[in-house]
Write a structure and sequence with these properties.
Keywords: Membrane, Transmembrane, Transmembrane helix, Transport. With 517 residues, the protein is mainly α. 73% of the residues lie in helices and 0% in strands. It contains 19 helices and no strands. Bound molecules: phenylalanine (PHE). The site of phenylalanine has 16 residues, from α1, α2, α5, α10 and α14.
Length: 517
């Protein structure tokens, strides 16, 4: 019997988010993460300050939002985690799904380490036990960083919070989409926004705050001519919005059939960028205070990017701030909440993909995937070479892997499988904010052209200059090795015959013209 084309297929027993708000909070939870708090302020500052807003907005409008919509359209129409969703479009495309999910998996493995550090620092903040020399404390006493080598010396101070992180992730995932992941987000996301706004207000009332903001927002127009700045803007948007990682495909697949997808997407993108900007303001106001205390300029300060910003510079500022303890506790609690709501999105994506492929129950796949991740993150990142490994893997996953993923995804869907129009109709059939043909132009032309230029430029610089002066074999193993690992594993997983349910009982809804092939 044919299903009337205006009614969703009733036989579906896929779990769903309990409401649109639940979905939006979860998607915001995935997007707002460590990337907003420690990645954005540093990247923006290094890449032209106020002028960075131009490439940033371009990246958001030409690639960020359009690819977010694309992720949503695929997941929502084909109702599965990334590998199966792509497989339902065309069988071989399953490999792209695995490529994306594996990249996310790699990120989860190191992302957990940063959450674990934040947990330790949350505890340290109560009595400022990091002492006066916060750099020596972080690198020496806490991480016990050694040379770029393969170290097997586990640092218990990292391993313990790491185990706690993974157990918490496992519990959230095992409880399921609505009872686990959605609940965590409904609780943490409002809390995170309130806590963070509190931090920003405190930061803005510190002496010197305005100097920090002036430094942050002073545009360096010359930066706009630098290709690297544009690359930085695009990778920031991808990482920050969690797009092209297969994660938003998976999240959208748990959305009810009748759901306003594009409007939700706009809310998520807006919330994410606002949070990012807020973080930039908070961080630079705080740095302004630090410069003020040391009677110097913000531009003279060191350690403004990456983990160093959160784990070395911030503790140093907290030491000097009246009421620093509360600020520190709230800051690290915010990092934990932001990070946790992002990492569970990744694990949900990985677990759902593995479960669907091998026909495993929800709990079984959650346990097995979390166990593998936990072992890998403890083995790789709680050792004395953890920080360097993390930096290298991050660089390759985010500047090479994800760009490649976005190129293959857009070219495959728009040009090879010609699904642009169908997916556009899908979005428009369910959403109130309609997407015009411009969307196909963006995902089919503008996006891929920019991305290919970026990728080539990045590859040339990595091949010719290496990375951060680390030894060649090390960059080969952890950097290029990550990319090769993801590609090879994607091929292997695709080659394994599909064991779960795949096409047989699946019918896309709403029925659209192009589907009758
Ligand atoms: N968007 C998250 C952040 O900004 C990171 C993330 C990447 C989450 C990829 C899911 C998938 O920190």
């Amino acid at each position: 019997m044919a299903t009337p084309s205006n009614a969703p297929v009733a036989t579906e027993n896929r779990e769903t988010w309990t409401s649109n708000t639940g979905f939006i909070l979860a998607a915001v939870g995935s997007a707002v993460g460590l990337g907003n708090i420690w990645r954005f302020p540093g990247v923006a500052y290094e890449s032209g300050g106020g002028a960075f807003m131009i490439p940033y907005l371009c990246a958001l409008l030409t690639a960020g939002i359009p690819i977010l919509f694309l992720d949503y359209a695929i997941g929502h129409r084909y109702r599965a985690a990334a590998p199966l969703a792509y497989r339902r479009i065309r069988k071989p495309a399953e490999a792209l799904g695995w490529f994306q999910i594996l990249l996310s998996f790699v990120i989860a493995v190191y992302y957990a380490a940063v959450i674990a550090w934040a947990m330790s620092y949350f505890v340290f903040a109560f009595d400022l036990s990091w002492g006066q020399d916060t750099l020596a404390f972080f690198v020496g006493d806490y991480l016990q960083v050694g040379d770029p080598e393969i170290s097997t010396t586990i640092v218990p101070g990292i391993a313990i919070p790491l185990v706690i992180t993974w157990v918490a992730v496992l519990i959230a995932i095992a409880l399921g989409v609505a009872k686990g992941v959605e609940k965590v987000n409904v609780l943490f996301i409002p809390l995170l926004f309130v806590a963070f706004i509190g931090l920003v207000i405190r930061a803005l009332t510190l002496p010197g705050a305005l100097d920090g903001l002036t430094e942050f927002f002073t545009p360096d127009w010359a930066a706009l001519g630098d290709l690297d700045v544009w690359i930085a803007a695009y990778s920031q948007i991808f990482f920050s919005l969690s797009i092209a990682f297969g994660i938003m495909v998976t999240y959208a697949s748990f959305q009810r059939r009748k759901a306003n997808m594009t409007s939700s997407g706009l809310v998520v993108a807006f919330a994410n960028s606002s949070f990012e900007l807020l973080a930039g303001i908070g961080v630079f106001a705080t740095l302004g205070f630090m410069a003020h205390q040391q009677s110097t300029q913000v531009s003279e300060l060191e350690g403004l990017t990456g983990p160093i910003l959160s784990f070395v510079t911030f503790p140093a500022v907290i030491n000097e701030m009246p009421g620093g303890t509360i600020f520190g506790v709230v800051f690290f609690a915010s990092l934990i909440m932001a990070g946790f709501t992002s990492i569970i999105s990744i694990l949900l994506g990985v677990a759902a993909s593995v479960g669907e492929k091998f026909g495993l129950g929800w709990r079984t796949s959650a346990v097995s995937v979390s166990a593998v991740c936990a072992v890998l993150s403890i083995g790789l990142f709680s050792t004395t070479s953890g920080l360097i490994a993390l930096d290298t893997v991050d660089q390759f996953a985010n500047n090479v892997g994800i760009v490649l993923s976005a190129i293959v995804m857009t070219v495959l869907l728009v040009w090879v499988y010609r699904r642009g129009e169908l997916l556009r109709q899908h979005l428009n059939a369910v959403s109130t904010f309609k997407v015009g043909k411009w969307w196909i132009v963006l995902i089919g032309f503008v996006g891929p052209v920019f991305l290919v230029i970026m990728l080539v430029q990045k590859l040339v610089s990595l091949v010719s200059e290496g990375y951060e002066g680390y030894p060649g074999w090390y960059v080969g193993l952890f950097g290029w090795g990550t990319v090769v690992f993801v590609i090879v594993m994607a091929a292997i997983l695709t080659a394994i015959p599909w064991k779960g349910r795949d096409q047989a009982d699946f019918r896309p809804w709403p029925e659209l013209e192009e589907e009758h092939r």
